[in-house]
Task: inverse folding
């Protein structure tokens, strides 16, 4: 006697979504899924992929044997098949890829914006004509002053406004920065920057951060990194690099919150 399993298609009207499908010749669930797609009663579009589930909603591995589901299977307790249009799957994949690329690009832009700011005060080698990356800064700060990095100096005496709003005189030949490059951050901060840099590998070198509708710059970071400590750290290193005058000048966004439909405004 040919063994059959009751299968319900949850993606169609119930009138057309319940039928019995033979498991004869089906060594694996993958073979059984092909048989299911042949059953016109299930009204599964040709242009779709299908997944099989136990009655409790647990997904069934395609490598399982369909014979293991014979016991307990009935019209009242059928297996469940769900169809997903390939176009929808492709759209979902593209959205997920775009989200990840946005996170990487945002983080890289932030780190490279810091590197670009440093290049205004320090001279060091970098390979990309678009500008320095944070990797160039990390390499330079581990080198020797005067060889691997050096202060940029004023070419003429001039006046400018300092970070406290006072007008100060900058004399010709005076360093444009007060601190040595390795002293800008603590050893722990440099280590965190190095680790964060390794996690964001997409190379975006123009050093320009995206802005909100109110003109405030922002970055998007992975949900796994979105902690109060990390948010505070990212803001502080921007201030120490004089990219911002206050930690409140930068918005740090959680990628998961954005993916749920919140606005960047």
Result:
């Amino acid at each position: 006697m040919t063994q059959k399993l009751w299968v319900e298609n949850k993606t169609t009207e119930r009138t057309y979504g319940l039928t019995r499908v033979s498991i004869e010749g089906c060594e694996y669930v993958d073979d059984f899924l092909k048989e299911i797609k042949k059953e016109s009663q299930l009204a599964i579009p040709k242009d779709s992929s299908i997944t099989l589930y136990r009655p409790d909603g647990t997904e069934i591995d395609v490598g399982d044997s369909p014979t293991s589901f014979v016991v307990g299977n009935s019209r009242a307790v059928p297996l469940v098949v769900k169809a997903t249009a390939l176009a929808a799957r492709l759209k979902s994949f593209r959205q997920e890829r775009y989200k990840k690329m946005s996170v990487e690009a945002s983080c890289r832009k932030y780190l490279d914006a810091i590197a670009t700011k440093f290049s205004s005060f320090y001279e060091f080698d970098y390979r990309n004509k678009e500008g320095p990356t944070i990797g160039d800064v990390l390499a330079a700060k581990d080198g020797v002053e005067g060889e691997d990095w050096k202060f940029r100096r004023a070419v003429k005496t001039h006046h400018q406004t300092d970070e406290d709003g006072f007008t100060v005189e900058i004399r010709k030949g005076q360093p444009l920065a007060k601190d040595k490059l390795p002293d800008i951050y603590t050893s722990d901060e440099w280590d965190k920057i190095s680790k964060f840099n390794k996690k964001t590998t997409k190379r975006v070198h123009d050093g320009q951060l995206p802005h909100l509708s109110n003109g405030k710059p922002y970055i998007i970071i992975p949900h796994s990194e979105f902690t109060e400590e990390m948010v505070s750290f990212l803001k502080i290193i921007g201030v120490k690099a004089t990219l911002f005058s206050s930690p409140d000048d930068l918005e740090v966004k959680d990628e998961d919150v954005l993916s749920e439909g919140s606005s960047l405004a």
